[in-house]
Amino acid sequence: MEEYVSLEEPVLLVFEWIPFDIDVFEELAEELEAKERERGILLTDAVDEDPSKPIFERVPPKAMVSVTRYEFGKVIELESFLGLGEEKLQRERLGIRITDYGSVVYGLRIKSVCGSPKASLDKLSRIVFDVFDDTSTLMDSILSLYQRRVLNIIYPRLREEGFERRKYAVLIARRASPDLPRAENYLADPYGTEVRQVTGRVISAFELNGAKVLCGENGMLIIGDPGDLSWAVIYASLRAFEMFLNDMNVYLWMTWDRVSVLRRELLKGMVEEVKRRRGELARISSDISLLSGLRGVISYAIKRLEEEFSELEGHEALDTLRAGRILLGLKRRNQFLGDLFEAIRNEIGGVVMILNTHIEESLDRLNTYMYILSIVFGAFGVGEFTMESLLSLGYDPAISMLMSIGAMSAVAIGGWAIGKYVLKRGGEEA
Amino acid sequence: MRRLREDAEKLLYLISLYTGGEVIKWIKNYALWVLVYYGIINNVFKSYDYAPTVVMWHGAFRVANISMEAEKDLLRLRNEGLIEKLRLATSKYRYITAYRVSKGGLEYLKGVPAEIRKSVDAVFRPGGSLVTVVLDDYRPLLRMPDGRTINIGFLEAEDVPYESDTYYLLV
Fold first, then answer.
1. Å from B162 to nearest chain A CA?
2. What number is the average pLDDT over the span A200-216?
C-alpha cells in the first residue's frame, strides 16, 4: 500500500479522562509512594482474590513505573516501561502525567519505526492504537477497583483483547515529508485520507507560528514548532473529557433502551426468566448508582478545566478551534446528566413494580392452589374418619360410604365458600 | 456527471450486489466495513488502505480496521445521488447506518466496464453466489458460497515494530 506522508522522530501524546478527584488522586500518590520518588515499582492488573493469604502465586508483572515528579494535589508524573515478560515487537517507554481532575496524558518520543527514524502516518496510525491498548493495560494496574469498575461499565469487555476505550491522540513532528507550505495542503488527495487515519474527520486546518496544525475529531497533527504547547494540551484534555462524557451518555441511552425493552416484555406478559430479569435490573441499578456518583467528580473536572482554560483565554489556536464552545457544551451536558440519571432510575423503579406485581400474582395463584389442595386433602381425611367411625359403630358399609361422601362434600363446599369469602375480603382490603 | 474513480465504481457495484433487485434491501455499515476490508486484502480496491479505528461495535467500543478512502468514496457516492443512506435506531445499539444503491446508481453502473464488475464478482461472488457477513458473538466472519466460514481479522490491529522513549509535557 502507498504511504504518502511521513514524520521524522514524532512525539505522540495520548490523552484520556479517568474519574479522579483530589482524594482518589492523593490515594494514588500514596500508593505509588510519590513523595518518596520510589523507582521501579512493578505493577500487575491481577486482583488479590484472597487477601488473607500471605503469599501471591503466579502474578506476572505487566509494567514497571517510576515516579519522576509529584506536586501535592496537582500532578504526578511517571516513567513507565511496558510489556514486561512479553515477546513484543515494541520497546515502549513512556511518560505519564496524571492530574488531580482526571486528565491523563501519555507521552512518548518515537525513536524508530521498523528501524527508521521516519514513520509514515499509515504506520503511526497502528502505533497509536498499540499505545491506546498498552496504556489501558498499564492504567488497569494503577487505578483503584472503583475507577476500573466505572471504566468497565462504560466500556464493556475492556479487559478482553481488541476492546478499547476512546482516547485523543496528538502527533507532533518538527519535519514531515512532503513538506507542504500550508496545513490545508495536507487535506488534498492523496494525503488527506492518510491524515484522517490519525485525526479522524478534520475539523480545522491552520498555521500557528509557522507550524501546520490539522485538528480532527479523534486526534491532532502538528507539523513544525508552534512554540508553547499549553493550548494543545488544554484542547486535547477537553476533547478527551468530551469523549468520556459522550461514551457515558451512549451507555446511559443504551441502558435506558434495555430497561424499556424489559418493561415492554413484562407488560406483554413475557414473565419467564423472572429471576434473570431481576438480576439484570439489580446490576443495571447498581451501575447507575455508581455512575451517578460521578457527577461531583465531573463538576470538579469542569471547574479545574475552566481554571486552566481561563489562563489561555483568547489564545489564537483555542479561538480557531472554538475550545470555549466545547467547555460550554461540557457544562451543559453535566447539567442534563442529573435529569437523565433520574429518568433511568424512575424507569427501573417502574419495571421493578411490574415485576413485583407479576410475582404477587404468582404468589396469589400459588396460595389458591395450596388452599384447594388443603380442602381436597382435608375432605378426604374427614371422609375416611367418618367411614371408619360408622363402620366401628356397626353401620352398614353402604350407608357408611354415603355418609362419608356427604361429610367430604360438606367440608369441601364449606371450605370453598369460606376460602372465596376470605379471598374476596383480602382483595377488597388490598 | 464525471466518471468516478475505479475503486469508487467498484464500491458502488459492491453495494448494488447486496442491495439491488426487486426487494428493497439495505446493507448495514458494519457489514460494508467488513466487505471493504475483505476487498482491500484481496486486492479488489487497489487505492484503498485501512487503519485501526475505535468504533462502537455491537454495544462495545473496539478497534476495527476501517478504510478512510472507502468512507470518502461513500460520501462522494451519496453526494452524487448514486447511493442512499438510512439511519435507524435499534433497541440495543443506539443507531446504525445502512446503504443501498439508488436508481441513479443502477443507471450509472450500466456504463461501468465489464472488467471492473468481474474483479468484484471474482472475490465477492465466486461461483455466482454472494459472500455473506455473519456474526459469531461479536466477531464478524465471512460465509463463503462453498459453505466455509472464515475469520478475515477485521477486528485485529496489526503490530508495527517501533522503539520509543519517554516524553514529558513541559507545561
1. 4
2. 95
